[in-house]
Amino acid sequence: MVLVPSYVAVDGLVVPLAIHQDDGRFPTGLWVATDPRRPDLDYLMYIVNAMLGRPRAMPWLDLLRQRQPVQLFGVGLRPLEPEDLEESPDYVERWTRLTGRPPDVDDAYVSSTMFLSGGMVVPRTTLIKLVEKLIELDDAIADGRLEAKIDRSMEIPPPPPPPPPSTPPMWADAEWEDLDRRLKELDELDPLVPESPALEQAQRAARLRGSIFSLLDVAWRRTLLGDDDLPGRVAELELANLQAVCDASDRLLAYVHDPERRAIVKTEPPDSPFMADVSIDLFRLPPAPHPDGYRRHEWLAYCEAIFVEQRGPVENVAGDIFTRIDGLLVRLRYRAEAGAHLYLWRVELL
Questions:
Q1: What angle do CA 158, 161, 162 make, to 5 degrees?
Q2: Continuous segment of H or E residues that includes residue 332
Q3: pLDDT digits (tens, 9 = 90+) for 127-170
């Protein structure tokens, strides 16, 4: 005879099973078992066990499919309301601890009982699939297709590991907006014109640029780790100057990962677009013309290769390299930006 599985799993939810023996009030049947490793399961166990009672008091699956509330024997399910999420964040946290991921709150119930304080969010579709499986197993016990005995050879999976502690955003909205304003100030201090700015103005621009790009490098690395969302916050706050930086980051990364560029320069792509050998401004500011017969990435790669080979020590905070490529006189402009690093920030045909 086939035995009852020791558990069922639905959408990451693992539910251990037990057999309730005939006690004169209820016939032998399937129950959801308690699990000391999953205390939050108790918020669901009582209501599901009430649904499994035979004969079944109500067409439970029909009620769930119609998004109707369920109330019986001191336990109940009611559709989740927006205010529940504001007033009781632990409703979501309990499900997240139980399954390892947050629930879909757009279509969910709150499961509660008079035996426990508070409640738990339960996605409606997951609940339907769980009840369907359990009723199917219970019916198989009732008609003799399954022996009323748990298959203990099936090991119940351990609960998911606790989620890592959330990392607060690096900056408040006002600080993102201030960074956007400072980037606009930088462009006013150091406009792209043939004449070099006065020394004091150039030094001030260099300090401001180093501060901004160093902060953006940190934000980028935090974004890679999942601790922040640089492009998302910029888009949400509609910060045009920082959006231009994010767009330039995409173009720079496409360039440094281009196989043609890697074949010419022979250096690995950087961890951050703010720590490449070429500046983010090479892609943020209006592009300099490149000669006919060269693709843009190919031309930049030849310029970058010469810059990497010939740049001086970092103490030379800014300067020019004049060279010839394919008979063309080229000016490679470089400067320090973030940290102890020299960047190629402009390529000009002379």
A1: 135
A2: strand 328-336
A3: 999 999 999 999 999 999 999 999 999 999 999 987 666 667 77
Give DSSP secondary structure letters for 63-126: HHHTT--EEETTEEEEE--HHHHHH-THHHHHHHHHHSS---TTSEEEEEETTSSSEEEEEHHH
C-alpha pair distances (Å), 84 with each of 102, 108, 110, 177, 204: 15, 11, 9, 32, 51
- Say whether pTM exceeds 0.70: no
Nearest to 188 by CA among 199, 175, 201: 201
How high does pLDDT run on average in the chain? 88
**Mean pLDDT (whole number) for 282-302:** 89
Q: Give CA 80 to chain center in angstroms.
A: 25
Cα 96 to chain center, whole Å? 16
Relative orientation angle of helices 124-142 and 42-52, to the nearest 10 degrees: 50
At 318 the three-state DSSP class reads strand
Phi, psi of 56 (to 5 degrees): -75, 130
Looking up tokens 């690096």 gives 170
**Amino acid, res. 92:** V
Among 97, 101, 92, 111, which residue's Cα sits nearest to residue 32? 111
Residues 6+ apart with CB under 8 A from 131: 48, 51, 60, 61, 64
Residues in the chain: 350
| Residue among 330, 274, 273 nearest 303 (CA) | 330
Tokens encoding 264:
């010419």
Instruction: At 137, list the tokens.
Output: 């197993």
- Measured CA to CA in angstroms, residue 56 lies from 61, 127, 140, 337 at distances of 11, 17, 15, 72
Burial class of 268 by CB neighbour count within 10 A (0 to 12, 13 to 18, 19+): exposed
Residue 198's pLDDT is 73
